[in-house]
Amino acid sequence: MATSQAPKSFRNFIDGEWVEPRGGQTIENRNPANTSDLIALFPASAAQDVAVAVDAAKAAYGKWRLTPAPRRAEILFRAAEILTARKEEYAREMTREMGKVLAETRGDVQEAIDMTYLMAGEGRRQFGQTTPSELPNKFAMSVRAPVGVAGLITPWNFPMAIPSWKVMPALVCGDTMVLKPAEDTPLSTYHLTQVLAEAGLPPGVLNVVFGDGPGAGAPILSHPDINLVSFTGSTEVGRIVSQACAPAFKKCHLEMGGKNIILVMDDANLDLAVDGAVWGGFGTTGQRCTAASRVAVHKKVYREFVEKFVARAKALKVGDGLDPAVQMGPCINEQQLQTVMRYAELGRQEGAKVVTGGHRLEGGAHARGWFHEPTVFVDCDPQMRVCQEEIFGPIVCVIPFESFDEALAIANGVSYGLSAAIYTRNVNHAFRAQRDLETGIVYVNAPTIGAEVHLPFGGTKNTGNGHRESGLAALEFYSEWKTIYVDYSDRLQRAQIDTA
């Protein structure tokens, strides 16, 4: 709801204190469903703010890394309890700043809760290995060690879940950090930071600088005291991040784009497949790296599927996500809306048939927001740009195929490799799909979205660079292996030489 009061101003969080940005510049945080609703002003941080934050993280590292992991984990457990108590409040404020419907923002906060509990448990489970030495009277083992100061850069589409994916494993591993959230959704990261401070996180362990990529993100990448960088965002920006980290050999994790697909076989439960395609394509307004922007359907059931899918897409109610009747919210900002509109026009130019949507929604309840119609292209050629490039909006391209092998070729014929799904009752097809789909995540009889925090999350090809978020895989990035040998033979023993 719009207000005539002066907007609230927020500050950066550095060394346990909320501090003004050095340059005094701010960025508006507006409601994408109602742009007249100015939520707050946040800092437009610059290199000098990042430098102070890194100094605080570096100073805190010496003590934090020596804090026993179970003690670090107790702070996370308390934070999870606070998040649980405030779930509804934070979900509502997230819908206001990000736009997705309330059911989804509740899920976003719940994901942060789940991740925080999961990593709290890992405080007592950072297991290494012990193994027999090849020499007598010698003990061999490995342990996890923290990496140092982490630079974390997060996107706007999951403004509490994704920061938790990075912050919580880094904390439990003993790293300190500087976090830069997306400038479109800073409030949710503010809430997460406040919760951790209330839970007892020592000053300097987590530092937050608000701002845009050039102003606050780039200085994180180039700062010599940042030891590792984790970035979630577009492949284009991810390439810049990788290049910036390479000269100093910074440990670098990239979670980037996707062009995900749902395969619908002729033996599929068609109604279930339609449910999955609607949720996969239009959940979060298609603004997910795992969104199902392609649906390939066997020709035997193609027309039936298209009829049901289009009817469901047409019926979706678009509007303010705080309205319980609304099923799809706005695009995050005008720039993203314009991108969606360009791809809608491109699809038409390429010869794809628009059967519903294709336009900006204006007037009435949509007059002050960044809304686009749920859009379905049918009879698409898999080589069309709308079938190859990530759109990050409510556009789904439906592609016909004749055989399972053709479906696999369509699925794998893109530069991304994040998520794929198959709907089938044929166990042979299901297992072949699991094996042969070139993605980091495969779903059977479920859509391409719906990751669980205790399993690895990430992709192949232009989606990622080999690291994974979530689950135990996250510990691999935020810690390093240290191998230890203890020789109690009281004499010189030379491995390999003295075993001959």
CATH architecture of the largest domain: 3-Layer(aba) Sandwich
Class computed from helices, strands and strand pairing: alpha/beta
The CATH homologous superfamily of the largest domain corresponds to: Aldehyde Dehydrogenase, Chain A, domain 1
> How much helix, percentage-wise, in residues?
25-40%
Write the layout of secondary structure elements.
Elements: E1 8-9, E2 12-14, E3 17-19, E4 26-31, E5 34-43, H1 47-66, H2 69-85, H3 87-98, H4 102-121, E6 129-132, E7 138-146, E8 149-153, H5 161-173, E9 176-180, H6 186-198, E10 206-208, H7 213-222, E11 228-232, H8 235-245, E12 251-255, E13 261-264, H9 270-282, E14 294-298, H10 302-315, H11 334-350, E15 353-356, E16 360-361, E17 371-372, E18 375-378, H12 385-388, E19 395-401, H13 404-412, E20 416-417, E21 419-423, H14 427-436, E22 441-444, E23 460-461, H15 473-478, E24 479-487
Parallel strand pairs: 1-5, 8-9, 8-11, 9-10, 11-12, 13-14, 13-21, 14-19, 18-19, 21-22
Antiparallel strand pairs: 2-3, 4-5, 6-7, 7-24, 15-18, 16-17, 20-23
Helix pairs in contact: 1-7, 2-4, 2-5, 2-6, 3-4, 3-6, 4-5, 9-10
